[in-house]
Design brief:
Length: 50
């Protein structure tokens, strides 16, 4: 496989206070990722419609 045929790979660092996450992969996939930095409990309540 030639370099020009490989998908573009990118990485994004998202940090908040003392926490951080790195998302890496094909650029079109990374562009579609939403990083949410809040307690899991609030995410679960949001999913329940509360």
């Amino acid at each position: 496989m030639l370099a020009r045929d490989r998908p573009r790979v990118t990485a994004v660092l998202a940090s908040h206070r003392a926490r951080a996450v790195v998302v890496a992969g094909p650029q079109d996939l990374v562009d579609a990722v939403d990083v949410v930095m809040r307690p899991v409990r609030s995410l679960l309540h949001q999913a329940d419609g509360a």
